Amino acid sequence: MHRTIDVGVLGATGMVGQQFVVQLARHPWFRLAWVGASDRSAGKTYAEAAPWRLPEPLPASVGRLVVQPCAPGGAPEIVFSAMDAGVAGPIEQAFARAGAYVVTNTRTHRMEPDVPLLIPEANADHLVLIDRQREARGWSGAILANPNCSTAALTLALAPLHRAFTIERLFVSTMQAVSGAGYPGVPSLDALGNVIPHIGDEEEKIERESRKILGALGPVGVEPADFAVSAHTNRVPVIDGHLETVSVGFRRRATPEDAIAVLKEFRGSPCVAGLPSSPNPPIEVDARADRPQPRLDLDRGRGMAVTVGRVRPCPILDLRMVVLGHNTIRGAAGQAVQIAELLVADGRLGQRT
Amino acid sequence: MHRTIDVGVLGATGMVGQQFVVQLARHPWFRLAWVGASDRSAGKTYAEAAPWRLPEPLPASVGRLVVQPCAPGGAPEIVFSAMDAGVAGPIEQAFARAGAYVVTNTRTHRMEPDVPLLIPEANADHLVLIDRQREARGWSGAILANPNCSTAALTLALAPLHRAFTIERLFVSTMQAVSGAGYPGVPSLDALGNVIPHIGDEEEKIERESRKILGALGPVGVEPADFAVSAHTNRVPVIDGHLETVSVGFRRRATPEDAIAVLKEFRGSPCVAGLPSSPNPPIEVDARADRPQPRLDLDRGRGMAVTVGRVRPCPILDLRMVVLGHNTIRGAAGQAVQIAELLVADGRLGQRT
Amino acid sequence: MHRTIDVGVLGATGMVGQQFVVQLARHPWFRLAWVGASDRSAGKTYAEAAPWRLPEPLPASVGRLVVQPCAPGGAPEIVFSAMDAGVAGPIEQAFARAGAYVVTNTRTHRMEPDVPLLIPEANADHLVLIDRQREARGWSGAILANPNCSTAALTLALAPLHRAFTIERLFVSTMQAVSGAGYPGVPSLDALGNVIPHIGDEEEKIERESRKILGALGPVGVEPADFAVSAHTNRVPVIDGHLETVSVGFRRRATPEDAIAVLKEFRGSPCVAGLPSSPNPPIEVDARADRPQPRLDLDRGRGMAVTVGRVRPCPILDLRMVVLGHNTIRGAAGQAVQIAELLVADGRLGQRT
Amino acid sequence: MHRTIDVGVLGATGMVGQQFVVQLARHPWFRLAWVGASDRSAGKTYAEAAPWRLPEPLPASVGRLVVQPCAPGGAPEIVFSAMDAGVAGPIEQAFARAGAYVVTNTRTHRMEPDVPLLIPEANADHLVLIDRQREARGWSGAILANPNCSTAALTLALAPLHRAFTIERLFVSTMQAVSGAGYPGVPSLDALGNVIPHIGDEEEKIERESRKILGALGPVGVEPADFAVSAHTNRVPVIDGHLETVSVGFRRRATPEDAIAVLKEFRGSPCVAGLPSSPNPPIEVDARADRPQPRLDLDRGRGMAVTVGRVRPCPILDLRMVVLGHNTIRGAAGQAVQIAELLVADGRLGQRT
Lengths: 353, 353, 353, 353
Fold this sequence. Notes:
Oligomer: homotetramer
Largest sheet of chain A: 6 strands, parallel
Radius of gyration of chain A: 19 Å
Largest interface: A-B, 41 and 41 residues
Helix content of chain A: 25-40%
Distance between the termini of chain A: 25 Å
Number of helices of chain A: 13
Number of strands of chain A: 14
């Protein structure tokens, strides 16, 4: 149906870069044809340059790719960015200026008004922001942002509830896996048998990104959803999977049964639901008293579904519930690939000026 | 100053019973002179009967004690109960009827109106309930209850804030250690690299016990404090130490600085502050961004102090903060011993009718 | 090519039983059509009876099966046994007597002289023992045994080395995952941040089973291989995967290069290599200094390959090396299914008298 | 009895340096009066310079010390070195030349013939090497080396067995805690639920250091003990405590009963046994089938005793056993302090030329 589309990865040798390699292996539409990394790695093969640290094997065809410097010449039209936030800004902009669609996992551009911050099932309509972005910035490409990992799982689970009942107040306390901190990331002396009740800037990301994702398109970008968020973020000794406890209040009163029905019925638009990476359903509701758990429920929908459990009344607001999402798939590389699929399905490729 | 007072432990061979043995070793006032357990253990020495599972060595003098059946004849005037809730009720009552002060760690009697539910620094004044209890029940002894472990740490931290600002709304999400579930307790397949977002009846305990502890003495027992609690309880792969994230709103507005000042100044009454098990201060405030952590901060005040960190504004209520307490010391055996010390300091021993 | 063959699982509701369910889902030859369990479960659907605890979803078709009592009437010709050793003996025998091929993961019959103890790549020729077994016992079926989990990985790795160089002395120290102890199995208080240097009877199993597997067919069963084994077995806080350090001495001197060549060239017989569950190659040699590791290398060959690393000289014997195998796949359900495949490929089905 | 002796710590701000601070807090003979660290830290107070990461509180008096550059002027006569091996050599030599006794935890000088490598209970007689060292090098001070952490526990346990039966062959497989790798040390992604079967140069250290420690004084330094060692070293997800499985063969045959008797009777020389840091006994033998375990047995003798368990016959050599030692106390700072105590007890202080 689709022709194979070449894609690239910026910052390909790091942990998130490696996760992109895994997500793109055997992809039905995309072929990883280009890898960019720092000057230290450029010129080596990917197998030489990347300290491969994932259980999934490195595809031989990727291992043979020669790492390129992070400059747009010769790169494909779709480029995923897994760069460090400290250096990503100008490089991502250079690629977009040169005509690439840059789907970035980096925080740098997420809150800019003309950059869509996307969870395809939740706000695919925000994609049109890239038209304004290209016009305003005079770019032939564009930057599209993937949210923070704990925000992605949470906001996907909340999207249908916000649509149905309008969130007013939201308390969330996260228990986040160490893979979210990259490699070497969290020292084992801090992680083993311990909890660290702080993840730098994570609470602020949840508070502002969730409101942008669930916001409405307005004359100047997205009008953030009008709810208040109180977040606590914690690092727990789990490899993969962010678990989040949520208390939420709505404008229109919702019972657990109402919420469960809305969560179960939720599907992205037909266009989104048909994407190769889209899980069906995107939200699984588990009725068991002690679920979801990272160890047992993480891989639902190949890591792209979020699981919601323990939907029950809240003594203060409307509802309490627990949300689980795979931080390196739904919360990072997997969803970024899904965003690129949306670009293709929306007919936007091949339009470089 | 004090004569040595003999004490006993009901349910002495289980995990909580063993923790009582450790807490009572080298106690300046108390001498563990009597251990009671099920008929299966009675008649054996404690060393034979108890599958000792703590890092601290079993004191030889306790190992030689002969385990007694759980009946009051021959038991000391102060008895700690570490019995299973399923069987504790009638036995604890029999001991109290026979003249013993039963300081129980079991949930059975906690919510009865004439049973004080005590955190000595927070509500030592509730001790007078035992006078009503003895009169109403015709007992020469009395039952005094120690709160649930996650409630104890939380409520001690909240006590001075409630006194100063009056809590109205409280959100708490706990990350609780596996030792709280006893032995064998949580299977390792459930605990390793995992989080279980459910602990049976724990949320209800937090919601009702915190309000009783912070309540005021009224004509018929304690008038529960008038605030709403929304709790989430989670089991994390930590051996000891319950960490809790808290968002709290008050009747009188409080800034983080206000709260920190109140927390730091807090002391129990002079009588309580002078007890051997009372930490000084009972609440430690840690200003570092990533503290408290179970691995680093658990043993403050020999496990009897709670540590409060990350006191900061809440976007919805007044404050957010993190509370850490040692679940088997402040949350169980250690505080139960402190309650017995309070009984002694209050001059109540030796008054059997 | 093959017709679909119905198979059953005895002890289907326990952890090993559940692993059989997963291994048989989507099997190209076998269809799980019968599940047997204790009287407590019999009559319920499998979904009701089994406390499903695996990350892989329970196949709906299996969930609908009605659990049968553990008696042979109505069971398929191939039955996998995941029963507790305490009750397995008479039941497995009854099934074999009634005509079933019982591939058992239980230790009960492993060391009987006429019961083959199989690792298909290593000793498929031992399969002929079942002819003697049927004749001697007058059975129309037979019992075939799968080795102990730590033995299976170790002995598969050693098989080509024994064939090439003849093992004389073997030291092995294991670091075994908690899943090997079933559910609830190891309490988390024993597992978290700890090592338990003892697994009941495991050292004896390694010592005797490895010698039987690598032994030669003789007039009265298997003549055990003539080497001495000194084993240490330890439980470590890992979910899946047994890692074993090995020092080994041979009759014919072997350098690391010799051994690596032999390990890499090793394949089972063509018949075995062609089985659906057989990995290709069965042994992977990893040259990296810090491999294999459970977290990164466990799933090679879909859990059926063992990984050998750090092949280096031994200051006392010939070689040191590290072996990793998946304890619930190669060490249990996966290899048992492979043994049943061998039965089919060997043309032995449909021969009930 | 003793006057208080001022001591210093080189490399005081790192993890091992912090452990020295803890070991020296409340020491009956020593007072930590001087801390040296890199130029980056020099001039700051210790509290400012050291990222304190231990559960024990930083003593206020140490926190106020001003960090000095690592040069001998003004340093006390006894200096502990916790420096990185990469820079330790010339600095430790400069201190010794200037008259200090440098008790070093660093590997740099361990194998030099005139540097004693000490476990006080095992080879206090090697202390005389410093006389040769001072003469040969023209130093008024000396360097004394503390062994590698896994070697220290192992060799202390073997010392009485070597003395009684003469070791000929030794197999050891270690399971080592992450604290042995310092901070940040092992990334949590490598440690959680995993085993790493490699610790750089650790096997070589065990093989050569154990033979030096158990060797005899000869005309040119220590004549290494004449036994062969085959070591496997592994990192396991444990915070503190190295557990080691051992198979050992002797010149004179030894039964488990013989060995247990020798282990239990073992004491250091009276001089050593009387040192403040010397545990009594130095070796504890535990008869329980599943002991020692890091979580339960690590703190015996305040971390200075090693625990030996599972002493049983070996099918190949004489004995198998399990050894546990505290890697940061007996294996590092604790034993280094004990070595300095030995210097004092031996009357060597105050002898600067």
